[in-house]
User: What shape does this take?
Amino acid sequence: MKQFNKSDIKTLKEIMLLRRDVRGNRFIKKKIDDKILDEILSAANSAPSVGFSQPWKFVIVKSKDKRDAIYKEFEKENTKAKKIFKDNEVYPRLKLEGIKESYINVAVLYEKPKKKVLGQTTQKKMGEYSVVCAIQNLWLMARAYNIGVGWISILKPKNVKKILGIGKEYKLVAYLAIGYVDEFLEEPELLQIEWEKKKSLKDIKTL
Ligand SMILES: Cc1cc2nc3c(=O)[nH]c(=O)nc-3n(C[C@H](O)[C@H](O)[C@H](O)COP(=O)(O)O)c2cc1C
Assistant: This one.
């Protein structure tokens, strides 16, 4: 049985603490080697999943036309979001995506089960939660390779699926921008600009 040591723990902690959500103002034009991309996707593929169903599917989007179309969708949705945050002068200045600037986009899908899934008989969302576990693995492994990931959620899944030609047997869980960066911020940007505060361990409840 493999035993991890203090140095491994320190590294894991650093990868976790220094993982950032990366937006378009940080991505640089540098190719990601196919082998490294495979390592990152393999990390995602090793995530825990309900009934070992591994219900994820990754669609790599390189096409400029498709990305331009997705970007238009983002602009449409963000215009609505700007109205929602109309009393906040910071919101319109935030860069909230990196669709065009990143090396690749990755649509992460949930494949609806074709057979009964062990553990998913009571709580139907467990498959989708498993996909999120895969995304977190991907995010951390990318950071270990000094590659940035940004999750873009200001998009209508239905429209993204249409642009990418994705069938109704799949649900869009995440749309990611992935690429090398000029810098990883030490702290979340939204913490730095005091949009939100960091949650303290005091919030944990013991029963
Ligand atoms: C489910 C999810 C959706 C997110 N959607 C967006 C988004 O649409 N645009 C954006 O700029 N950041 C998005 N983020 C990034 C968060 O703002 C970011 O994770 C948070 O501020 C903490 O910063 P950090 O990831 O750099 O630690 C999303 C993150 C998650 C987990």
The first strand starts at residue 56 and ends at 61. Helices lie at 6-17, 34-45, 64-84, 126-144, 157-164, 189-192.
